[in-house]
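Structure ticket #2291
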Amino acid sequence: MTDEAPDGKNNKGQSVRGLVYPENRKNTMENETSKPDILSLSYEELEELILSVGEKKFRTSQIFPQLHRGLMPGQMTNISKKTAAAIEEAADCFLPQIDIKLTSQIDGTVKYLFRLQDGNCIETVLMKYNHGNTVCVSSQVGCRMGCAFCASTIGGKVRDLTAGEILGQVIAVQADSGERVDNIVMMGIGEPLDNYENVLKFLHNVNDARGICIGYRHISLSTCGHVDGIRRLAAEKLPITLSLSLHAHDDETRSAIMPVNKRWGIDETLRACREYMDSTGRRISFEYTLIKGKNCTPSDAGALAARLNRIMRAEAGCPIHVNIIPVNAVRETGLEPPDKAAIEAFCSVLEKKGIRATVRRRLGPDINASCGQLRRQSRAGAENGTESTSCVTENKN
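Resolution: structure written out below.
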């Protein structure tokens, strides 16, 4: 990961949206301890750790699956207390703890505010569909990308999550719900490709057949347009779905709401997406947040269709899908969604240009299920000494 902010300024000074990135910022939890995070370890790395504490290699086949079910060594009944203590001495054994849990009375969506070992909080969402359960995970504590419409970036980035802290969200949700997680979307707090190494390790670990074993084709990763990361991920040739947060058809508008565009313009970003599709054989999903007065006219839709068709269908062509997202009203941003008629008109133009357009159904509207909102409200409530939300909550402390 680079220390350069998306607008090209160094994190040691002033950056996007007036945020200041401190010179001595913490990168991940593993920087603060010499012990590895046990959930970040691959099967082979866990095997090495088990051998290092004087245990037999076969213990790995007993311990790894149980870790992925949410049991720490001290809770396992098929290893001795001595072995458990030795492992817990050699590695950090910690699962994200539920600080607040909100359950939608409308559609059953569950939103978690997880507390990490260092006291930082992240959000995770369990969404229930007819085709299975999907978990939306965070990849960073906060975010430095500075997108104008996103609650996650308010306050900037604190640090990256380890691979184990990302995996721990999936494990903790399964353990709490008692239900199998079938799909993962990396659309929570943070820019996944700004935490590339930890995210890549998470992808490998969550796919391991000896653990949770979620197939790559059941994983989607959303990026604001980190072109270097897109190209690195393409080279891995993992068959995961890539989603690009596009949100504008021209560089001027996109740069105003997404500072990352000042570094990588729309055409370069779309070309990287085309390379990803060619390398992996997986189609790209384009996310487009409709913002009243910014990017939501029929003219905007026509220009968007022209640009997507020109670059993404330049050769043999490919199916293009745009996921329309009416912006969530967040007090600090001052942004509002357009009305229903404007949304329908926008989609109609795209469809006439041969582009499939769907409007994302907002899940958990009664619990502020969009990323960043619960964490922000919780922090504000703690600072003010008041309740963080008016929703029905289950506090796990």
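Closing remark: The longest strand covers residues 121-129.
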